[in-house]
Amino acid sequence: MSLIYIVYCIQMVSILICIAMMLQRLFHGPTAFDRMNGLGVIGADTIIMLVLFGYVDGRPDMYVDIAISYGMLGFIGSVIIAKYLGGNKL
Fold it and tell me: What pTM did the predictor assign?
């Protein structure tokens, strides 16, 4: 196993720690906007994890496509939640 795979694994573990901290913000946030911010950070970290896992697996092209799709779905979901919290009708 080369050094680059070890670096990728260390990065993935640190991103998992960041996701765990954001889960605390998501479940115990004082306001709905803190919870929405936590959800957005978890989505972005998940996209980064997918791309890193693609490099570890040796197929970054497939995982980048999945990450782009996940990013689009996360954006649409964030817009819908923001419109709901803002009181506007869909």
Answer: 0.83
Q: Is 58 helix (H, G, I), strand (E, B) or coil?
A: coil
For residue 37, the tally of other CB atoms under 10 A from its CB is 16
Q: Please say whether the beta carbons of 54 and 64 come within 8 A.
A: yes
Nearest Cα to Cα of residue 34 among 45, 47, 21, 46: 21
Place of tokens 């709905």: 32
| DSSP reduced 3-state for 68 | helix
Segment 17-39 shows an average pLDDT of 90
Candidates 68, 55, 76; CA nearest to 9 is 55
Backbone phi, psi, residue 14, to 5°: -65, -35
Segments in the chain forming alpha helices (H): 3-28, 32-57, 60-86
Residue whose token pair is 């670096």: 7
